[in-house]
Design brief:
Helices cover 83% and strands 0% of the residues. With 224 residues, it is mostly helical.
Length: 224
């Protein structure tokens, strides 16, 4: 039994719509999978950024604690040195033998304490004028810690924002492709001329979605 040209044309149209629906659905699924992977990567970057923030806070606290401990030892060293110098002046000016002996012992004790305390702070942070440089100690300690672990969270948070922006753009493309599938499905179920209008509309949305997906990969390749 032969079929009419109209029936054969309608069958071909429905077959074409079914093929387009399948293709667009596969493309949307692929983009959805990619969006999920990129979203996971964005979450990872957030985690790395948070970890770097915690490491930075911990490092700053420990470095500051160490610096103040060293500075306290330096202050004691300076105090004993000054005390020894002051006693030395009195010792040089006294003529009383008993007082001279007592001052001499006090002078030696102060300088001995200064020598003992000197071992409790790094002398390399002393400036030429003998003053301690806490900023230099903190800077070097931070640089040394940064070579061992990540202390800069901003690049991770920036990368996470870029990845989330990419996910948002991919979702918009998926919405366009979903609309194209809806147009193709409506066109497949109709029997009058409106189906061609719907098919053209769906085809336009599909082409826009494909073009946007290609541009997304070419222009925003660094985003994931």
């Amino acid at each position: 039994m032969s079929t009419s040209p109209e029936t054969e044309q309608s069958s071909r149209f429905q077959t074409m719509m079914a093929i387009l629906i399948a293709l667009v659905t596969l493309l949307g699924a692929a983009l959805g999978t990619r969006a999920a992977l990129i979203s996971t990567a964005a979450g990872d970057e957030d985690f790395y950024g948070l970890a770097a923030s915690l490491s930075a806070e911990e490092t700053e606290a420990l470095n500051t604690l160490t610096m103040y401990r060293n500075y306290r030892a330096y202050a004691a060293y300076t105090r004993y040195n000054v005390l020894g110098d002051l006693v030395a002046k009195d010792w040089e000016q006294t003529s009383d033998e008993t007082q001279s002996e007592a001052l001499g012992q006090a002078m030696q004790t102060a300088w001995a304490m200064a020598v003992a305390v000197n071992r409790f702070f790094p002398a390399r942070y002393l400036n030429r004028d003998g003053r301690y440089d806490p900023e230099r100690e903190l800077g070097e300690a931070w640089a040394e810690a940064a070579m061992k672990k990540d202390l800069d969270p901003q690049p991770h948070f920036a990368a996470a924002n870029l990845l989330r922006s990419k996910v948002s753009r991919l979702l918009i493309i998926i919405i366009l492709l979903t609309a194209a599938v809806w147009f193709f499905t409506l066109a497949q179920g109709l029997r009058h001329a409106l189906r061609y209008v719907l098919a053209v509309g769906g085809g336009g949305l599909m082409l826009v979605g494909i073009a946007a997906a290609v541009l997304e990969e070419l222009v925003h390749r660094g985003g994931g």
